Structures are given as C-alpha cells and as structure tokens.
Amino acid sequence: MVRHFGIVAALAAGACAITPKQLLQAPRRGAPVPNPSGKVALFSYSQYSFEEQSTTSAWQLLNLETGEITDSGLNSTEVNEAVWLPGTETGLLYINGTNEEVPGGVTLWIGDISKPLESKLVASLDAPYSGLKVANTSSGDLRFLVNTLAYPNGTAYNPDLAPTPPHTGRLYSDIYPRHWDTWLTKQRYAVFAGSLLKSSGYGLVNHTLRNLLEGVDYNVTRPESPVQPFGGSGDYDISPDGSTYAFLSKAPHLNKANFTASYIYVGAFDSAAAPQALNGPGSEAYEAGHQGASGAPTFSPDSAKLAYYQQDGDYYESDRVKLYVVDIDQGGYTTGNGSAVSTSNWKGLAPNWDRSPGSIAWAPDSESFFVTAEDYARTRAFHIPLSSDADFKPENLTSVTSITGIAVLPDSSLIVAANAIWTSAEFYTLSPNGTQNVLFSAVEVDEDLAGLGPHTLEEFFYTGSLPDFDQQMHSLVVKPSNFSENETYPLAYIIHGGPQGSNANAWSTRWNFQVWADQGYVVVAPNPTGSTGFGQELTDRIQGEWGGYPYYDVVLGWEYVRDNLSSFIDTKNGIVAGASYGGFMTNWIQGHDLGREFKCIVTHDGISNTESAFTTEELWFMRHDYLGPIWAENTTYSKWNPQDHIANWSTPQFVVHNTLDYRLPESDGLSLFNILQTKGIPSRFLNFPDENHHVLKAENSLFWHTEIFNWINHWSKGTDLDSNAIGQ
Ligand SMILES: *[C@@H]1O[C@H](CO)[C@@H](O)[C@H](O)[C@H]1NC(C)=O
Ligand SMILES: *[C@@H]1O[C@H](CO)[C@@H](O)[C@H](O)[C@H]1NC(C)=O
Ligand SMILES: *[C@@H]1O[C@H](CO)[C@@H](O)[C@H](O)[C@H]1NC(C)=O
Ligand SMILES: *[C@@H]1O[C@H](CO)[C@@H](O)[C@H](O)[C@H]1NC(C)=O
Ligand SMILES: *[C@@H]1O[C@H](CO)[C@@H](O)[C@H](O)[C@H]1NC(C)=O
Ligand SMILES: *[C@@H]1O[C@H](CO)[C@@H](O)[C@H](O)[C@H]1NC(C)=O
Ligand SMILES: *[C@@H]1O[C@H](CO)[C@@H](O)[C@H](O)[C@H]1NC(C)=O
Ligand SMILES: *[C@@H]1O[C@H](CO)[C@@H](O)[C@H](O)[C@H]1NC(C)=O
Ligand SMILES: *[C@@H]1O[C@H](CO)[C@@H](O)[C@H](O)[C@H]1NC(C)=O
Ligand SMILES: *[C@@H]1O[C@H](CO)[C@@H](O)[C@H](O)[C@H]1NC(C)=O
Ligand SMILES: *[C@@H]1O[C@H](CO)[C@@H](O)[C@H](O)[C@H]1NC(C)=O
Ligand SMILES: *[C@@H]1O[C@H](CO)[C@@H](O)[C@H](O)[C@H]1NC(C)=O
Q1: Where in the cell is it found (predicted)?
Q2: Which of 168, 439, 507, 557 stands 20 to 30 A from 645 (CA)?
Q3: What is the pTM of this model?
Q4: Whose CA is nearest to atom 3 of ligand 10?
C-alpha cells in the first residue's frame, strides 16, 4: 500500500521547496496499462536511494474504480515486462530477464495477477529480447512479437555468447558510423515472431522465433526495427486476431544520415512472404507526397484496419505529423512464398488539423481513435472519428497538464497518465461525457513533492519578431514554492532545445523548472520561433534563422519581463541557461547585446561553432535547418556562428559537455571553454564521460545540479563559489 503515505510528515517538517536531491529520489511511475476488462491497471514504479546508492523497483496495481494501489506481487528484479492476455480477466504473459539454460537469454512465462507466484515457464529465448506484444487467436494459440539485435544473417545476437574480437578497430565505408551514443556494429534491431501452442501447454512452436525483417528488399539501408535510438515496441504491432503484423523501418533506398523517411511494413503472420511497405515508393501515400518519417502502426480492435502517422518531408524531422488509416486485406494476394497482406482505402484523417499527434489508441468499436498531441505548451488528448471529413478540427479532451500516456477502457473511457510543473504523475479516468475521476496524484503521496501545486505557474503572451505572423509568443513563468508577493527574485531565463521543441507545463527529471525556481529565482521559459505545439508555421519559420527570429523573440520576451513583471522579477541579477539548441542560443546571446544583461550563462551540450556542424551524424538536420550541406551555396553555417562574435564575449559562463554526446560532439564545449579561459572570462567546464546528450544517472544529475546552482547563486546572489573544480 503506497497511497496516502508520507504527506503529513512532510508538511510537519515544513518542506515547501523542492531540492535537486528530492527531485531525483522521488518515485518514478510508468503509465498504467489496464487489463482487458478495465478493472485494474499495471504500472512500473522505481525509486533511487542516495543512502543505498541504488534503485528499487516494483510492478504496482491500480484499482480503476477505487484508486487503491497495491504491489502486484510480480518480482520486479526478475520480471522485465508484462502484458495482459487478451480474452482473460487477469492473465499475463511476461518476460523473465533470466534464463537458466542460455546465458544472456530470457524466458517467457504465463501467469495470473491473482496468483503471481504460480506462473509457468513456457519458452526459453536465446537472446535478450524485449518489447513484448501478444495476440490470443481464435484457436487459443498465442502469437507474440519481441525485438532484439540480429546478425546480418538474421539470427538473434546474444552478446554474452558472442566471441570477443581480437582488435577494437571499427571500419566504415558508409556514412553514419555512429548515432546518439552508440557506434554502429554489424548488428541491427529486428522484430521476431513466435507462437505458443495451446494444445502443447503453450509450448513454443519450432522452439524458435522468426525474424520478420528477413526478405525485405533494400539497396542502401539495411532494414531495422525498432528504429534507433528511441524506438521500442511502439514501432510494431500485431493484430488482435493474430493474423497480421506491422513494423516501422527506415527507407531502404535512402541513406540514414541524409534522410528521416521511414515506412510501415505489413505481413501475414503465418506466411513466409516478405512484408511489404504500405506507404513506400509507388504507394498511393508516396505518390501523394507523403514521404517522411512514419510511426505508431496500430491495429484496430477488429483487426480490419491499421492506423499510423507520417510526415511529408523526407529529411525534415519536425515536419507536421499527419494521421492515416488503411483497411487490412488478409490473404490479399499470393506470392511464391505464401499469402501477403494487401491494403486498401488508404485515407488521411483530419489532414488540415495544424497539430502533430504522437500516439494512437483505438476505441473499442474500431470506428474512431484517440491521439495525444502538443497543444499550447502541454500534451493533450483528442478524439478522431474515422467518419470525419478533411476539415475536421479535433477538440482537446484535456486541459491543463501534460499527458504521458493514454489507454482506452472497454466503455470507451480513457485512463490518462499526466504530469505538470507541479507533479510527477497523476492518473485519472476520463468518461466519454467528459467526467474526470482522479485515481492517483503523486503530490498527495510523495513526501519529496509535498507542498507543490499549480499556484507557482503563470503564463504570458507577448508580441514576437516574426513579420506577417498573427499569433503572439508564449512563455511560462514559474515562481518559487515559498513565493512572497513582497519580494523580487532574480530571473532564471531558460531557453529550450530542439530548436523544434517547447517549454511546457510538464514534469522533468532533467530541467525541472520548479527545482530551478526553488533556488530562489523566477523561471521564465519562452517559446520563441521554432517552438512546437503552436501550429506548424511557428515551427517552420526557424529554418535558416537560428540566430535571427528566435534571438529577437528571446530579447523581446526578456524586455517584456523587465517592463511588465518587475514587481516580482529582478532582471538586473538574472541568469540565462539552455541545453542543445538552447545551448547554441546561450552562446549566441554571449556574443550579442542581450548577453550583457545577465550575471552568468549556463550552456549544456550546445553548438558553439556552426562551421563544425558536420561532426554530427544527423546530416538531415543540418541540411534542413542550415539550408543545405556545409559546402553548398547560400547556407547559414557562417551566418549564425557564435564563434564569429568572440570579441563581444565577457559574461561568466558555465559549460557542460558530455563525452557520449555524438549528436553534438564535446569538441564544441571544449573550444567554447578554451576561448572563455583564454579571454580571461570566469568559466567552468563540466564533463560526464558516461552520459550522452542527457544526464540520466542520479548521482551524476545531483552533481550537475549542485555545480550549476553553485555557479548561478555565486554570480547572481554573491554566495561563495565552491572549490570542487580540478586545478592545474
Ligand atoms: C526477487 O528476485 C530476486 C532475484 O532473483 C531475489 O533475490 C529476491 O529474493 C526476490 N524477491 C522476492 C520478494 O521474492
Ligand atoms: C484466449 O482467449 C480465450 C477466449 O477467447 C480464453 O478462453 C483463453 O483462455 C485465452 N488464452 C489464454 C492463454 O489466456
Ligand atoms: C525467473 O526465472 C528464474 C529462473 O531463471 C526463476 O527462478 C524465477 O522464479 C523466475 N521468476 C519469475 C517471477 O518468473
Ligand atoms: C549467423 O551468424 C552468426 C555470427 O556469425 C553465427 O553465429 C550464426 O550461426 C549464423 N546463423 C546461421 C543460421 O547461419
Ligand atoms: C515452424 O516450422 C515449419 C517448418 O519449417 C514452418 O513451416 C512453420 O511456419 C514454422 N512455424 C512458426 C510459427 O515459426
Ligand atoms: C536504390 O534503388 C532505388 C529505386 O528503388 C534507386 O532509385 C536508387 O538509385 C538505388 N540506389 C543505389 C545506391 O543503388
Ligand atoms: C521467397 O523467399 C526467398 C527466401 O527468403 C526469397 O529469396 C524470394 O525472393 C521470395 N520470393 C517471393 C516471390 O517473395
Ligand atoms: C481545451 O483547451 C482549452 C484551452 O485552450 C481549455 O480552456 C479547455 O478547458 C480544454 N477543454 C477540455 C475539455 O479540457
Ligand atoms: C458521465 O459518465 C459517467 C460514467 O461513465 C457517469 O457516472 C456520470 O454520471 C456521467 N455524468 C454526466 C454529467 O452525465
Ligand atoms: C506584504 O507586505 C504587506 C505590507 O507590509 C503585509 O501586510 C503583507 O502581510 C506582506 N505579505 C507577505 C506575504 O509577506
Ligand atoms: C546527402 O545529401 C546531400 C545534399 O544535402 C547530397 O549532396 C549528398 O550526395 C547526399 N549523400 C548521399 C550519400 O546520398
Ligand atoms: C544563392 O543566392 C544568389 C543570390 O540570391 C542566387 O543568385 C543563387 O542562385 C543562389 N544559389 C543557390 C545554389 O541557390
């Protein structure tokens, strides 16, 4: 029982501000996944302890009527993931992360949540598979999908059994030798299928799994699914009747560094015929100009339809995302290797809706689905009937907080997981008539979050710099938890990354605005040109304009604060901070007039020298945002280069740059720091050799927060600077 624990003790202790340590040691919860009858939902729970220096985890059960939370009894050390068994009330199929026969393998077990200790081992799998999805067929046989790395010959790769090569050389003849935080090897991810035969006590048919990507044609990019680095089981699906599968893979005839394009492949589960791309070259979708990245292939409950989304541009990663649905025609035609799936009645849904949905959940009657999409600085839910016409503009079903997950219950209600600046998690049901029933609220339960609430958040709109643009710019304002109306607080101005991204009313374990505000600042977090969630035009107009409109929007936002919010915000002792594109922007600010308005700057993994931008591997990004490759005419690499304005640099600057950041290599942070030092500008350099673009480990994150806050508090408030830095 976790519910209603701790709040009284925390309030009694007078806690009214959240510290970095509290942020990092507070529980983290996944979105609840309801059982087939919609009575209970399973979710993951984990918590880091600084005392023990370790994380504890659990699988917890949420009662969807009462909100009561109990431990499920599934041992989270052993159970990596669990899915409900369709057709049952409380049956589960789960992956046990150990395998007594095959080192590095896993096992599949059938169990029941009402008897968690009485599960049955049904299959031994010879590699570290994950991403389980299951269908219960009419015969009662179970068909499932999982994924893992595979050798070029299609066999699953088990690192524990692979021989160690005698040398460490990595030889490449194709562009894209590494991505995000990983150097490419010969192995690629693949989706594997297996069947558990009811008549044999759910034994694994053929004692093996089939690699579904085998046989897919390519001449440039080898098929891979899930798409790395962020793809998971959302990149593939199995129809509820078990007959059909679908997966996502990048365009096989385009190279991965220049293009974002990816297609949805479909195939018949019991056929050896190779899966076919339903929206690849030659398809109706492709010919109509929809050629970019695809996602979220999701079968309807009646198995007759597949919904997915796709962008138009084949190298623009932030192009508008559009929704599609096709009819699935089982046994549509026969190849030499068996029957294949054909698709028909391909149709765009809400094609003129100016938002970019990010997930799809079907209604039980297969006549509509729900999506989530960014909308005015939060992620909201929307409902899309298949019968809607082209001009249909979905209305938001949710309002204030940001949705992190939705699932549909048998009565068409939603179970929603959401968060906000003031809470790490809220679970509620949302009835078709709009009634919300809150089942769980982390701020009422978690000691570390005690005292947080919506009272610290404000928003304002101001006139930005874009000509011929009819919207105002948006900005968040986050006050300290113990805000007093008789005090002013220095400004912490925080610029978001992307640049196609947003500062949203959402909880973050990395840039948590409440934690920054509770150092005694008012955080102002603007959404300048380039931001997402306000319509595609605002997003698109940053192209070729990195230091242009967004910079002037940031200046105008700062002037708005100075001129209108001075009763509680002190801009004279303000600081500016940003990561990624936000880091680029802080470097641009350092070289321009706005840089003189801050006591110090904090830059996390940001570009300082745009002329070296080709050290990244996401060349599609440079090609789009800088108007071509580095050698082309009329690009903007030199136009918006922070290192062309070094003469103006003079504000103390804290530089973070991590070694595993292959997207923005650490050389940019090092040259930035070397220039600051050589010019005699007070500066520090913080590096994590084991972190990528993000700082994810709790102890590293605590050090990151401690040193950054020490820096801003010194320059803004005159506190002592610590002596933790490594000297000469
Ligand atoms: C859970 O599994 C771990 C690892 O096998 C074991 O050490 C631990 O005792 C188990 N916990 C319970 C409550 O059974
Ligand atoms: C599959 O669904 C049927 C009902 O459609 C049910 O009787 C059967 O128990 C389910 N299979 C498993 C393994 O739970
Ligand atoms: C996981 O598998 C191990 C054997 O590899 C077994 O001892 C343990 O009981 C299993 N745990 C669960 C929860 O299935
Ligand atoms: C595939 O390649 C791996 C690594 O070379 C090898 O161990 C495995 O036996 C091969 N599988 C088949 C079916 O040839
Ligand atoms: C099992 O093997 C047989 C013979 O190779 C093949 O026809 C069948 O499709 C396989 N079944 C599965 C589920 O892999
Ligand atoms: C790959 O195939 C496509 C047609 O599908 C063709 O346009 C392209 O030139 C081919 N590329 C290479 C490198 O062979
Ligand atoms: C049948 O499968 C084989 C082996 O995967 C493949 O080479 C061949 O192209 C396939 N033929 C058809 C018509 O799909
Ligand atoms: C939709 O969003 C608006 C703000 O844009 C909000 O006022 C309204 O309450 C939301 N609708 C629902 C049903 O939450
Ligand atoms: C809305 O639906 C729920 C059940 O889904 C019901 O309990 C509630 O009374 C309904 N509210 C209104 C205002 O109709
Ligand atoms: C602010 O100052 C006024 C006048 O001095 C005082 O009445 C009020 O209590 C103060 N408010 C707070 C929150 O301290
Ligand atoms: C990548 O795109 C650029 C244009 O930005 C083009 O010049 C180059 O040939 C492409 N490279 C490959 C390998 O397709
Ligand atoms: C570059 O800009 C000049 C001046 O506008 C124009 O004449 C030229 O065609 C452009 N070059 C390219 C490759 O677009």
Answers
A1: Secreted
A2: 557
A3: 0.95
A4: 486
Q: Shortest CA distance to 85 belongs to which of 35, 139, 124, 39?
A: 35
Distance CA 671, CA 664 (A): 13
Phi-psi region of 129 (alpha: psi -120 to 50; beta: other; left: phi over 0): beta
Q: Ligand 5: distance of its center to the CA of 206 in Å?
A: 6
Scored b (16 or more CB within 10 A) or e, 19-36 reads bbbbbbbbbbbbbbbbbb
693 belongs to the catalytic site: yes
> For a pLDDT cut of 70, what percent of the chain falls above it?
98
Give the confidence band of 5 by pLDDT, cuts at 50, 70, 90: very low
Give the bridge partners for 489, in sequence order: 569
Distance CA 417, CA 402 (A): 9
Handedness of CA 143, 148, 152, 153 (dihedral sign): negative
Q: Nearest bound ligand to CA 634? A: 12
Residue 608 and residue 644 in contact, taking contact as beta carbons nearer than 8 Å: no
For the segment 450-495, what is each residue's pLDDT rounded down to a tens digit? 999 999 999 999 999 999 999 999 999 999 999 999 999 999 999 9
CA distance linking residue 500 with residue 293, whole number of Å: 16
Q: How much distance in Å is there from the Cα of 75 to the middle of ligand 3?
A: 9
Q: Which of 266, 262, 325 is nearest to 295 (CA)?
A: 262
Active site residue 124: no
583 within 8 A of 604, measured Cβ to Cβ:
yes
Burial of 364 (0-12, 13-18, 19+ CB in 10 A): middle
φ and ψ at residue 720, rounded to 5 degrees: -70, 145
Residue 511, φ and ψ in degrees, nearest 5: -120, 80
The pLDDT-based confidence of 6 (bands split at 50, 70, 90) is very low
* CA 459/CA 477 separation, integer angstroms: 6
β pairing state of 489-495 and 130-136: unpaired
Distance (Å, whole) CA 463 – CA 466: 9
Q: Mapping DSSP to helix (H, G, I), strand (E, B) and coil, where does residue 171 land? A: coil
How, if at all, do strands 294-299 and 489-495 pair? unpaired
| Closest ligand to residue 339's CA | 7
